[in-house]
Amino acid sequence: MKLKLVEKRDEAKGTKSFFFEPEREVNWLPGQYFYYTLPNIRYPDARGATRHFTISSSPTEGKVLRLTTRIRQESGYKKSLDELKINDEVEGEGPNGTFILDENQKGNYVLIAGGIGITPFRSFIKYNIDNKLSDTKLHLIYSNSIPEEIAFRKDLENWSKSFENIKVEMTVSHPEESREVWSGLVGRVDEQMLKKLIGNWGY
What we know:
Blueprint: E1 2-12, E2 15-22, E3 33-37, E4 50-54, E5 65-70, H1 76-82, E6 89-96, E7 107-114, H2 119-130, E8 136-144, H3 153-162, E9 166-172, E10 185-186, H4 191-198
Parallel strand pairs: 7-8, 8-9, 9-10
Antiparallel strand pairs: 1-2, 1-6, 2-5, 3-4, 3-6
């Protein structure tokens, strides 16, 4: 199906979201992904013109599909994606995938993400909030190299403060490389950090 680009947004250092409006309604579950085929690869890319990306928006946010990715200069595909103009069209196929949030399975869940791996969990959390799934607790532990690379930072911070069943903890591994004075967690996610963070949250 045809997908029309309707918005582009900077999310963090080197990370952007691309909002695509499908030509017909798409029903997807939080965590599923879509294939995107670009009409014109402007730069050489051995992997071709098609990639799949998790839909970072929640189905509760409307019909537009949100593709969030880090733009890497060594990727001809991503450079070409970044140069798309508003109203340009790509070919889409989906939704696909079984890594989903099952709202019928209530309980406490720990979500661990690094870098751009945050995309399905952003969808999980927004879906949980919009559907008032208060019996399902989501505890996100999100790691990046520096604070500037934290995608969806304001949303995640606000959701963690506003909803008792949502807890977000962010850690950075190289705060010394940032211009920001980081007062949060430092280090990579390992067994010791996990024991410290989830030991008192009802698991």
